[in-house]
Amino acid sequence: MDGGPAGAAGPVHEVLAALPLVDHHCHGVVTAGLDRTGFESLITEGAVWPGSGISPFDSPVGVAVRRHCAPVLDLPRHAPADAYLARRAELGAAEVNRRFLTAAGTAAYCVDTGYAPGHGTTTPAELVEAAGGDAVVYEVVRLEAVAEAVAARGVEPGEYGAVLRAAVREAVRRPGVVAVKSVAAYRTGFDLDPARPSAEEVARAAAGWLARAPHRLDDPVLVRHLLWTAVDLGLPLQLHTGFGDSDIRLHRADPARLTDWLRLTAGTIPVLLLHCWPYQRQAAYLATVFERVYLDVGLALHYVGPARARAVLAEALEITPFRKLLYSSDAYGVAEFHHLGAVAFRQGLAGLLRERVDADELSPADAVRIARWTGRDNARRVYGLAGLPGLADLPG
Amino acid sequence: MDGGPAGAAGPVHEVLAALPLVDHHCHGVVTAGLDRTGFESLITEGAVWPGSGISPFDSPVGVAVRRHCAPVLDLPRHAPADAYLARRAELGAAEVNRRFLTAAGTAAYCVDTGYAPGHGTTTPAELVEAAGGDAVVYEVVRLEAVAEAVAARGVEPGEYGAVLRAAVREAVRRPGVVAVKSVAAYRTGFDLDPARPSAEEVARAAAGWLARAPHRLDDPVLVRHLLWTAVDLGLPLQLHTGFGDSDIRLHRADPARLTDWLRLTAGTIPVLLLHCWPYQRQAAYLATVFERVYLDVGLALHYVGPARARAVLAEALEITPFRKLLYSSDAYGVAEFHHLGAVAFRQGLAGLLRERVDADELSPADAVRIARWTGRDNARRVYGLAGLPGLADLPG
Amino acid sequence: MDGGPAGAAGPVHEVLAALPLVDHHCHGVVTAGLDRTGFESLITEGAVWPGSGISPFDSPVGVAVRRHCAPVLDLPRHAPADAYLARRAELGAAEVNRRFLTAAGTAAYCVDTGYAPGHGTTTPAELVEAAGGDAVVYEVVRLEAVAEAVAARGVEPGEYGAVLRAAVREAVRRPGVVAVKSVAAYRTGFDLDPARPSAEEVARAAAGWLARAPHRLDDPVLVRHLLWTAVDLGLPLQLHTGFGDSDIRLHRADPARLTDWLRLTAGTIPVLLLHCWPYQRQAAYLATVFERVYLDVGLALHYVGPARARAVLAEALEITPFRKLLYSSDAYGVAEFHHLGAVAFRQGLAGLLRERVDADELSPADAVRIARWTGRDNARRVYGLAGLPGLADLPG
Description:
Three copies of one chain form a homotrimer. By secondary structure, the first copy, chain A, is of the alpha/beta class. Chain A has one domain: TIM Barrel, CATH 3.20.20. Helix content of chain A is about 45%, strand content about 10%. Chain A is built from 17 helices and seven strands. Chain A has a seven-stranded parallel β-sheet with strand order 1-2-3-4-5-6-7. In chain A, helix 12 links the parallel strand 5 and strand 6. In chain A, helix 5 packs parallel to helix 16, helix 13 packs parallel to helix 15 and helix 15 crosses helix 16. The longest helix of chain A is centred in the C-terminal third of the chain and has 23 residues. The two termini of chain A are about 25 Å apart. The N terminus and C terminus of chain A are likely disordered. At the B-C interface, helix 3, helix 14 and helix 15 of B face helix 12, helix 13 and helix 16 of C. Chains A, B, C: This is Amidohydrolase family protein. Chains A, B, C: InterPro entries: Amidohydro-rel, Metal_Hydrolase.
């Protein structure tokens, strides 16, 4: 949009519209019906503020829901919020989820199961069942959740390192686990000592941390230890960076602050920088100079909406090798975001690529290749999905 | 402009062109005539550099003045700087000010009276008189000016806290005062301890500060104390963030650095992040996740000019609830900036909204609503202007 | 591009297409033939990652090379990488270099001779000879290289300050030297104490540094001392800021962090902020408020490519006085980048200016003036090139 009409037609648009996406980072959706407050609380990174007169519907993401999700529920585009919620209630959560997950056109989901598990959201198996068709699902293990479970079960500080390591290895042994994830950005930010902590440092930090309750992992030594645990594990590591809720300090989640750690761990595991906004250029720099660093602009895609996704993608792709950008929705809670993330990605990228093809800055064949790589094949490579059931024979 | 033709026609443009704006942060204008140096010194955040060959006219804001202000003085668009200054002198300051303030179409001004008071600029009453018509004026009290006046009058360190509090309460009791403002960004930047300082800390810091002269309030404890004084006061707090003159350290005025303080004070007073450029996305994040945080891109609007205002507004609105963006000009010194800020806002926002309407990403009714909210109604709500004389019955 | 068609025609485009550029910061090109790995290693700020499946050709700069450089080698636009490299080998390095340097249309080169000297790249004289025609060449002395040579020759710590000063004075006495350069951004970042170090501090720091080998100048006191040496010297100082290879910490190369030093040294030497991406707005702020600060977006121009150069230039010019933006390619290694930087600058700026002229936001005469100033005349002024052979009588 911004920058001309969003590629609403043409071969690149068609390729992107039909492409089975790999959503390399997302969450489950709520299985119960949602009242207005419940729904609104899930379409904002802020909160519902009763009595404020400020509704999440009155924001870019709210406009995008009314524009792009209403038709999936048989409503006219731009339907009012009340009509939208009424129709949603009328159809019921199962049907709503089915419609949006089908509409998303996602072939494979990598689901982070560590956020608010058991709060009435789908398990990975339920998510893919709701999506129907041939979609497959993989799991991403959240490291902080594993560590906090270790603490909750009780452990001696001197044993924490070994027990955590065993617990992580156990967790990733579940079928379908393809990656781990850390929310270090939320807990300490990225201004951490990049060095691997010694066993003594870990034990000392664990002693302090375990003595406190509840066990929210926010000790800088233990957060750092988690990141190094991921390195030892050998699986790809997803890292929340940038945009999130009010619990983050945005500037301290600038992925550039991870440079020293990325340099120290270069040549080990793939590191996937999630969300990144508004630091997508900083993330792109890291993906450009470090072999195993990747990025996406998930979460931002639906919050800025299809009207602005192209501008954000343009920054994310400004210098980035085309093998380094992935698609994710980071959808959580409402199935709308699985659909909206996909629409924003498909339309935003198609508009960007088509403009370059029209200006003869890019060949049509290259445009199609970039679309397929970023929407599907890069994730398939990084996570080794091609060898896994369901994605080996994805159509082109 | 950047991103297609600037909505020069159509219903959104017409609504914005006719909308009586609330300029929630601006300053007075010089009442005397201005020679070339005097005028140039007021259209740059740098300085006039004699002998450098670098004129503020040769910059985006200079081009915008010649393009959008010259016609208001009966000159052709893009009139040369010399012709512009000659015509300005010919008309005289009073007539020049009258023309630009009328052309701005501003219905209400919230005037920061704490910057360079008495330097030959209009009082709020004089400003609104020059604007003519039915415009109304409110006042914003600059906290640092109050504190520095307290110091200048003489006070015992142990009494500073109480005397300051009384002085601030006295200052805001003046009729028409609707907010306070802090320039903490200039004095310490935002890397401050977010906690409320104790009475002992304040007394100790005051002892050190009062012993020095002149009394420019730059002590980190006392700056922090000022911010907490605003919280106690209960009025909306305007905060300079981002862009300013050479006295600022730009990166330390990134509003993201205020996160801890905003978290601590959440649920208390409205906080209005002014200017924000180039951190408008960071400010938008804060406005998205904190109920009482708002932003504008004043000052930037006229410095980037109408040709680029749309791009800056697009970033400011990328994820922002539509209730959270306000209009301000931050005009100071020359009445041109009252006009230019309004033109940049009206044209930039109209272009942005119209493009989205044209692409069917936004309904026309929503576009009109966003225009009215950001240009007028949000300020009316935050400052409670609707209950004040003059703004109760503003036309739609 | 982004934001409408890239001014492919019209007077501004023609002026920019024909303008003899001054490239105020660039490097030599390799004189030997390059195999695939050799070429790829020179078109990325990352590295060639064997076995990764990630080729620098599959990135914005690779696409730009295939689009804009292939035709210079008689190949069709968007020629495949293999065909490109085969044709390059067929023509031979001398002919390839000649073609691109001629195509660049650069009238004057200011060559940084301190990066990887003697690694098979052209000397300034060889570069300009390869460029043919009437191009002239000037030299930029890299301060860290001088300091490291001083260390390599052996010096007593107590003598270091005086010997360095003499060595720098000697180095800049070579004919054609017009500036010095520092890569402090790489060595320490810009969070340095801005004050001039005392002779004792320098001697003490030199003692520590000289005791280590190899002598890579990364001591914060000595880096700071180098910057002050430049101030004493009186020549313009080029400073790497922002984007670079994996050896930089991007956020610590944000030029805003130099503010205190720029304030302390205001009124002394011109300081030219190089590259700046993604901090071009921060650099623009500094250039706006400090008389002797300038910026360019070299390096970024070819890495983002002509398809995106306009967006980056638009941010660089958002508030910037038109006297303050310069052109540089920062080309290194492959002559393609001398051409590509020039194409990206010419097309990007022409597109930006033409759009503003079309929208009547800028007069055609002003557009032409901005093009000439930024592409040529600003560098001529800052470096005093007009008085030097070859540039005195450049055509308009």
